[in-house]
Amino acid sequence: MMQNLLNSFSRLCVTNSRITLSQCMLIKFQTPSLNNSTQSQLQQIRCINKHGYLTEPGWKAFGHRWIVKFPEKYTVKKLPLMKLAGRDPATGKKVVGGLGGGHKKKYRWVDNCRVGPKEGPPLVEKVLNLQYDPCRSAKIALVASGDKVRYIIATSSMKVGDLISTSGHIPRNAIRPKEGDAHPLGALPIGTEVCCAEKYVGEGATISVAAGSRAVLIRKVGNRCILQLPSKQEISVKQECMATVGHVSNEDHNTKHIGSPNRLRWLGFRPRSGLWHRKDGRHGRKIRPLPPLKVLDSRKQEKIIELPLTIATGF
Amino acid sequence: MRLSAVVCSQHIGNGFRQIWKVQSKRKVLEFGVKEKLEVKGLPVVDAIEFLNLKRPVQSQLPILKSQPDKKLIDDSLIPKMLAKDNTHPNWHDEPCRVYHDHLSLFTGIEEAQHITKTCLISNSLPDRVTSFKSKIPEEVHKQMQRFILNAHVLDAVQTKLPKAINIQRPGWNFPRVYGLPRWRRNVQMMNKMFHTVDASLVGQNIDVTEQQFTNETMIRAPLILDGKQSIFETRQHRLVFGRKPLQPYLDGEVKTELLSQPLPDIYPLSRVISIHEQNIYRTDHKFPVLQGAPFDRLTMAIFFLNQPFIRTNGTKLEGRLLLHAFTVAAAHAQQRYGKDVKDLPEPVTINCMQTDSRNFYFGCLQLHSLDLDSSKVANNLFWIEDPQPMFTKCDYVDNQPVLEGYNPQVLETLMALYKSQMATV
Fold it and tell me: Which terms are listed as keywords in the entry (chain B) (predicted)?
C-alpha cells in the first residue's frame, strides 16, 4: 500500500508550507515514532491543505453542500457524492438555508497542483478531452503525459490535441507566456492575466478558479509578486506560487439564463425569500474604498547555516 | 328552479365522462358456463376470492422432510458476490496491465499500433480478398433486407432497456422502453448474415461445412509489455475455424518496405496509457479449440459491441478491432508454437469484423511476432476498411416496420472475405 501511495500522482511530491513535519507528527501520532522514515513520508502526504484534495481516503465534506468519497489512489473515475442540503456533516443540524435537492451528480477529482520540474525540460501534457463538470462552473480538461491521466481546470482557448507544459523554473528574465501553460508567478512578465493561482506554495490553486475569472500580475517586489484579484483587491504572494496563463474556460457562464425557477431546483437550490435585506446590501449597496493590501505568508525563513567540513589530521 | 348550464362547446373530458357513466354500469351475462363446468367436476371460484388468496411463498432452499423447521443448507453457504479486495481468489499483490472487452482507448488506432507493433494499411483490404468481390443477385439482397427487419424490429424478445439520458435536459425522466437488447440484435444479425452467405455459396458448389463456429468463449493471452507481465483477454466474439490456415496476404520486399515505415507519433503519451493496472487477474493461457481437433485453424473472428451507450470519437473502434484481433491471433499462436514464442515460424493470418449490428468494420491481420518490446519499428500488418453502415433507418414508422437506405456493399465484403477463406481450404 505504501508503494502504491508513493507511486500515485504529482500531488505526492507537494510539501506543506504551513504545517511542518513535526507538527503533523504531533497531530497524528502522539507516540514518538520519528525514526521510521516511511511513516514520516506518509504524514507529509496526508496533511496537505485546508481545502483537502487529498487528506485521507474516505468521505470528505465540501462546505455544507455535499460530501465525496475519495479513494486511496488518484483516479479519473467518477466518485460517489452525497448531498448535505445545508446540514453540518458532524452535527446534522441545518446551517445554510436555500440548499437542497437537485439532479444526481458525480464528483470529478480535479488535480489543482500543477507541479513542474525546476530544472531541465518542462512536463508536457496532451489535452485528450474537454468535459462538463456538474460540481463547478468551469469546464475541465482531461490531460495525459506518459502513463498518467488527470483532470485539470480548462482555460478558455484550450482545444483537444493541444500540448500544454508545466515548469517550476524561474529564469532571470521573464518568459514569453503561452495560454494554458503553468509557471511560477516569478517567471511571468508583469501585466500577464493568470488563473488557477496558488496562495501558498504547493497548496494547490485557489485564486480565480471559477468560470471566466482571471487575476492580473501587477508588479513584483523583491521575492514577492502582487496579484490583482477579480474583486480588484491586491494580494502579495511568494514568487514560487504556481499559476496558469489565461482565463478560466466557460467565459459566458454568467450570461446564461437559468430560465425558470424549476431549473434552479434542478441545480440544487431552494426558493429564495424575495424580501428586502437591509443589512446584506441586497438591492443596492454603498460603494466603499477597497481594503488595504493584504500580505500573506510573511513568515521569515530560517537561515541555512553552512558547516565547513574539513579534516585536520590525515588517516 | 336552477337550470343546469348549457354545454355549448365540444369538450373531450365531458365526452369521456358521459361514456363512463354508461360503461361503468355493466351487467354480467349468464351463459351457463358455470353449470356446465360443475357437471364435469371442475371447481369454480369467484375471481375476487382467487386474487385475495394468501398463498405462502416457498423458500428457495431445500428443507429436510424429517425436520421441516430446519433447512438443509445454511444461508451462509450460499455463494455471495466476491469482494474486490485481497480476499478475492484471483488477487495478486503485484498489479498487472489487463486489456479486456470493456476498455476503450484514449486516442485511437495509433495507440493500438504502438502496443501491437503493427503497420496499418488503411481504407483497403488485401488484393486477394478484393479479387473475390463480386455482385450478388438481387434476390439474395431482398432476402437479406427481410432478415435485417427480422433481427432489428420483428424479433419476439422484449426486455426492459436501459434508461435513456439526455445531457441537455438533466433531470428529465424519459419513459422506459421495452425492446430488443443490443446483444440479441448482434447475435440475430450474425446468424442471418452467415445463413445468407452459406445459402448463396452452396449454389456455387462450395462446401460450407468446412468452416465451424464457436460463440462467446473466453480467450486469454499472457504477454510481456514494457518488460512486465500483461494480459490480453476477450469474450464478446464469434470465431470461425477451418481445416487449413489462411495463407499470408503479403510477403517479400513489399512487406519489409511497409514494416520499415515509422509508426504515427503519440508524444507525450505512453503506449500503455489506456491499459490500466489491476490486482485481480488470471495468468493462464486460454483458447477454446484444442490443437489436433478436426477444425483447429482460426480463420475469422467477429467482435460484438454490446454496451448500450458507447461514447466514441475518432478511431477508437478501429483501435478496438485491431487489439481484439491481435488478442485472438496471439492466443492461437501461443497454442501452436508455445507460450514463450516471440517470432513465429509461420505467420498467423486472420480476417476480422466488428459490428454493433448497424455499422460494420472489416479488417485483416497478419501476425509475425509476439515480441511487443522488440527493437524493430513494426512486426505485423493490419488492413482495415472504413466503417460501412448496413442501412440508414430500420424502425417502426406509423406502426409499420420500415427499412431505408440498404447498403449492399456490406454483404458483398463479407462474402469476399468468406470466399477467400474457402479458396485456401
Answer: Mitochondrion, Ribonucleoprotein, Ribosomal protein, Transit peptide
